[in-house]
Design a protein that fits this description.
491 residues, alpha/beta, Rossmann fold, Four Helix Bundle (Hemerythrin (Met), subunit A), 17 helices, RNA-binding
RNA sequence: GGCGGCAUAGCCAAGUGGUAAGGCGACGGUCUGCAAAACCGUUAUUCACCGGUUCAAAUCCGGUUGCCGCCUCCA
């Protein structure tokens, strides 16, 4: 029953015991809004979205915080390039974030604070650090002194000496130690600024997360997460600032998701292989992307390729086809029962359907093993298809409720993954419509061709019928002859 | 240079001490006029390599090789 989580801080899977019974506070580092979100942001967001949903599904009262970094060097740079105020850039990309992440089907967090709304909180926290001697002023800047915080390096498992030895960091003359980091930066002319006890300036990057997480979740809270790259220095610095200021433990469980590579290469601006969420959503259904992510463990790197998304697409289509077939079957009149049905086959299916929720739970409670859980969805699907084969258009009073139960599992438990949210009928119809647009064919044309073929079939002119079918196939349309008529779909 | 991670079938991918989930693909079967879909079956005596611990190892330990990440903004 206990949820186990791999904690970056200890390097082990641990039992998850929330601070307050039945309540969970979780903070996920969001994005810096200076550009469009890419597939890496999508993965991180989906990972924490699913963690949030799962905790909710387990019955916890979850407070989920995801921030926006809306003031930072890159935003200022972008604003200067475009000759607009930094707020214009931040505002624009926050809007894009909502468009894209809405497209991916993310649940809205409980709070979505922006850094610039918490400047005074940051000034307060920095003041405490200065007073307690953890931070020092240098001209208009304030730096955190890593040597003063004895636990510095505990998250990223490094120590100050080692880091200095292999340092590639440019030495900033103002810093007492090259690893010290800015809490407050004095503003250069023309840059946005806020008044502070140290003069006009703006916050350093890390301080915002310390302030916002503590404001919404308390000085000590349950889960803090983000991409693996944030472990150092961002999260290390958050710990230093927060624990130095409060004298209390900061986040208790640290969760970090792995990266997305593109065709086995790291995604980077210099390689020019940044894949935005918009790019992907142009080609693929959002649930294809989610299915792709969730079939890998969240801590492992994933390799994006056209093929891998195509495979996820195939899987999603099949799920929806099964779901649709069940819906159709349930529309048919229910018969008392059939003697020719093998009771053992029914019993097998029933067992599979009944045990699905606990198998799902078993997988997810082990450090959110979504890949394993997805495996159980495939098993469930196979059993439901078996049941449909047995039912053959004549659902009995024992089969129908089982099909219904399967459908409920997909709906209720699928929610945790943000999958199977669409009506299967709509999903399939839209897939067809999109495909037709590409093939430059209309549904009427296809139906007309099918009529012609069925005429030929009636006359047992198999040669003609096969010609027509092959012709359509070569144009990307596959036909399926069923007892209730001929269906078509995209290859 | 320092720190960390990974290596499982043709491909993708779970599995951290008890004898290899699942998906894609391929092949055989049922069904079908033939197909397709669906279902059933087959597809890793074996988990990069070499040693060691153990009754028992893909899983733990040591070494080797290869790949990757972080140490600078980064999800």
């Amino acid at each position: 029953m206990t949820l186990r989580i791999y904690n970056t801080l200890t390097g082990k899977k641990e039992d998850f015991i929330p601070l307050r019974e039945n309540k969970v506070g979780i903070y996920a580092c969001g994005v810096t809004v200076y550009d469009l979100c890419h597939i890496g942001h999508a993965r991180s967001s989906v990972v924490f979205d699913v963690i949030y949903r799962y905790l909710h599904y387990r019955g916890y009262e979850v407070t989920f915080v995801r921030n926006f970094t809306d003031i930072d060097d890159k935003i200022i740079k972008r604003a200067n390039e475009e000759g607009v105020d930094y707020q214009v850039i931040a505002g624009k990309y926050i809007e894009e974030f909502y468009t894209d992440m809405g497209g991916v089907g993310l649940e809205r967090p409980t709070f979505e604070p922006k850094a610039t709304d918490h400047i005074s909180g940051m000034i307060d926290l920095i003041s405490i650090l200065v007073e307690k001697g953890f931070a020092y002023r240098k001209d208009g800047d304030v730096f955190f002194s890593v040597e003063k915080f004895k636990d510095y390096g505990k998250l990223s498992k490094r120590n100050i000496e080692e880091m200095q030895a292999g340092a590639r960091v440019e030495i900033d003359e103002k810093k007492e130690n090259p690893l010290d980091f800015a809490l407050w930066k004095s503003s250069k002319p023309g840059e946005p600024f806020w008044d502070s006890p140290w003069g006009k300036g703006r916050p350093g990057w890390h301080i915002e997360c310390s302030v916002m997480s503590q404001k919404y979740l308390g000085e000590t809270f349950d889960i803090h997460g983000g991409g693996k790259d944030l472990i150092f220095p961002h999260h290390e610095n958050e710990i230093a600032q927060s624990e130095a200021a409060t004298g209390k433990p900061f986040a208790r469980y640290w969760i970090h998701n792995g990266f997305v590579n593109i065709n086995r290469e790291k995604m980077s601006k210099s390689l020019g292989n940044i894949l935005t969420i918009k790019d992907i959503l142009k080609e693929w259904h959002p649930e294809v992307l989610r299915l792709f992510f969730l079939s890998h463990h969240y801590r492992s790197p994933v390799d994006y390729s056209e093929d891998s998304l195509r495979e996820a697409n195939t899987g999603l289509d099949r799920f929806y086809m099964t779901l649709h077939a069940i819906q159709e079957e349930l529309k048919k009149p229910v018969a008392p029962s059939k003697k020719e049905i093998d009771p053992a086959a029914i019993a097998n299916c029933r067992q599979a359907i009944d045990s699905f929720p606990s198998l799902f739970e078993e997988a997810m409670k082990d450090d959110f093993n979504t890949a394993q859980a997805l495996g159980y969805f495939y098993d469930l699907q196979r059993n439901l298809n078996s049941l449909l084969d047995i039912s053959k258009g004549h659902p009995t009073q024992e089969i129908a409720p089982m099909l219904k139960q399967g459908l409920d599992h997909f709906s209720k438990i699928g929610w945790v993954f943000g999958l199977f949210r669409e009506d299967p009928e709509d999903y399939l119809a839209r897939q067809r419509k999109n495909g037709l647009k590409k093939l430059n064919l209309t549904e009427e044309q296809i139906l007309h061709i099918i009529d012609d073929r069925n005429l030929a079939r009636k006359e047992k002119n198999w040669k003609r019928a096969d010609e027509i079918r092959n012709d359509l196939l070569s144009r990307g349309i596959a036909l399926e002859d069923t007892p209730s008529g001929t269906n078509w779909k995209l290859k």
